[in-house]
Amino acid sequence: MARSSTADIAHDTRRDERHRRAFSVMPAIERLGDRTGPARRYVSVAAAVAAVGGLLFGYDTGIIASALIFITQSFALSTAGQEWIAAALNIGAIFGAVLSGPISDRWGRRPAIMVAAAIFVVASVGCGLAPGVGVLIFARLWLGVAIGATTQIVPVYVAELAPAERRGGLVSLFQLVFSLGLLLSFFVGYLLSGTAECWRPMFMLGVIPALLLALGMVFLPESPRWLLHHQQERRAVSILYRLRGHHRHVRRELNDVLAAGDADAPQAGWADLRRRWVRPALVAALGIAALSQLSGPNVIVYYAPIILSQTGLAHSAALLTSVSVGVTSTVTTAMGIALIDRVGRRRMMLVMLPFAALSLFVLGAVFLDPAPLGGVRMVLMVVSLLGYIFFNFGSLSVAVWLVAAEVFPLAIRSKAMGLASATVWLADTIVSLVTLSLVQALGTTGTFWLFGAINVLSFLFVWKYVPETVGTTLEEIEGSLRAGTFRPAGR
């Protein structure tokens, strides 16, 4: 009992000292006046710069589709060699997502993003200058590490900077810029294609956005929540004022973060993810992470031209359909960002996922007739294909990074986000490896119907396990987890 009392007294003393240091800065903050407008712009700029990581994610993921044709010519690759070059990025991303969490927790979100940008630069140069297949695979593996780290750190960083009412749109900007990076890779691949060595500048161009990300982060702040968690209260309060612009907002958020932090261990480990009260957040985030890939978006983005050409559609028409898919995904993601803080994460998914499933069921039915596509069937194919992109990308793909970035407690947020990011990459790898085999085993119709059924399962999962978090602060979400009230309304 004496030990327990001593520990309690020590804990209370540390808590009181933290509060004293934090609030000692407030008189100076209160004299600075209202700078809400500049603060809003500052948050937007910070989110936009950090989202360049999403551009790298999209570009380096998509450029291999164009580059692999010419790499095969340069190195006379076997099918296994092609698969290893393509898969190396995904494998690296799984490790990058998991390992970057402890680094981000120890050294800060901002330095971790800068390290990832540096790895992007070195790995992109390594890919472009690779003298052989082994070096290329090794460089692609490190490129994957950087991508996995970026998908873990950037959403957490932006979520911790953003005010509750704007968090959804600002975090989802990462997914929008990913779509733009994917489109950019398609255009770069088309413009640079030609000679056998044209794949080298395709990879080297990835250095430009990586340098922009590294330089941009030099001028951005550390996450105030990370600073508060690491006893740098005065610096945290100063940054929080730059992000909020008014002492009332700073005081309210400071109270919330410190109150939530009082219950945390100073350094939470992986074992803390197994706590019973954390489990609902873990189920929601990891489920959305897996279903965002298992529901089939990358099947359409990467394999639609191959699948459609195998059904008799001309190669040019199949490629044009692929470009339409890229444009639709970008427009839809932008729409989702505009709506997600008004409509809500859960509501958007529940409204749109049934239509995503219906689109895939219709798409599968179009190919029941083995005759070449034409007339009404061609129109129906294009409408249902783009309809699926609209409804799936506008729901799961917009929400995947956001939900994972906001539902976890501060002490384990970075590690948990790394686990969610790794889940995305693992599911993506599985889908990439089995899709063409599924087409051979089930046929085009059966494959699209299977992914349609997974979209139905996604709807049921969201309905049962994912509560609404729109307009709720990160600390209020953590409070609901601790109180056992983190569940969908009505459950």
**Series of H and E elements:** HHHHHHHHHHHHHHHHHHHH
Beta-strand residue fraction: under 5%
Shape: globular
Number of continuous helical runs = 20
Please provide a brief summary of the model.
81% of the residues lie in helices and 0% in strands.
Q: How would you characterize the overall build of this protein?
A:
The chain is an all-alpha fold and 491 residues long. The protein has a domain at 269-491: Up-down Bundle (Growth Hormone, Chain: A). The chain is 81% helix and 0% strand. The chain starts with a helix and ends in an 8-residue tail after the last helix. The mean pLDDT is 85.
Explain the layout of strands and helices.
Elements: H1 2-23, H2 26-30, H3 36-50, H4 52-75, H5 79-107, H6 109-129, H7 133-161, H8 167-192, H9 199-204, H10 207-218, H11 224-229, H12 233-244, H13 247-261, H14 279-294, H15 297-310, H16 315-343, H17 345-366, H18 376-406, H19 413-465, H20 474-483
Helix pairs in contact: 1-12, 3-7, 3-8, 3-12, 4-5, 4-7, 4-8, 4-10, 5-6, 5-7, 5-19, 6-7, 6-10, 7-8, 7-18, 7-19, 8-16, 8-18, 12-13, 13-20, 14-18, 14-19, 15-16, 15-19, 16-18, 17-18, 17-19, 18-19
